[in-house]
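Q: Please design a sequence for this.
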C-alpha cells in the first residue's frame, strides 16, 4: 500500500527553502548623502584652508557651461556645501527664457557634478 501523506520533515524543508521567496523584500537603499551648506563667514576660511576655487570663478564657469548661443544663463547665487567628504558649490542660474537651473559643481575641479531644472520655461505664445 502506497503512502499518500508527505512526511513532516519534507514539509519543513520546503517551508525553509520557500520562505525567503515568499517573505516581503525590503530594499535597503544606501542613505542619500545630503549637502550641508556653510555660512558665509565659514566659506572664506574653508576656501583658503582647502585650496578651493573662488565662488566668482565657479559662477562664471557654470553660466558658460549651461548657456547656449541662443539662450544665455545668468548666475544668481552660489553656496559652498559639503557633500560627504567633497566640497561643492550649489549654483542657481536663470536662463533668459525663464528657466531656473540648479547646478552642483566640484569646488576643487570646477566640473559639473549635477544639473537640475527646477522650473520650465513658460510657453511662448
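A: Design:
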Amino acid at each position: 500500500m502506497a503512502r499518500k501523506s508527505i512526511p513532516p520533515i519534507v514539509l519543513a524543508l520546503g517551508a525553509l527553502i520557500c520562505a525567503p521567496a515568499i517573505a516581503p523584500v525590503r530594499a535597503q537603499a544606501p542613505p542619500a548623502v545630503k549637502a550641508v551648506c556653510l555660512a558665509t563667514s565659514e566659506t572664506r576660511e574653508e576656501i583658503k584652508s582647502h585650496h578651493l576655487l573662488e565662488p566668482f570663478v565657479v559662477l562664471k564657469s557654470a553660466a558658460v557651461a549651461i548657456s547656449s548661443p541662443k539662450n544665455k544663463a545668468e548666475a544668481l547665487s552660489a553656496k559652498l556645501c559639503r557633500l560627504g567628504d567633497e566640497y561643492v558649490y550649489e549654483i542657481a542660474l536663470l536662463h533668459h527664457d525663464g528657466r531656473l537651473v540648479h547646478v552642483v559643481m566640484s569646488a576643487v575641479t570646477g566640473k559639473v557634478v549635477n544639473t537640475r531644472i527646477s522650473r520650465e520655461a513658460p510657453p511662448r505664445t
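Q: Thanks. Anything notable?
A: Residues 94 and 100 are 5 Å apart (CA to CA). The longest helix spans residues 8-22.
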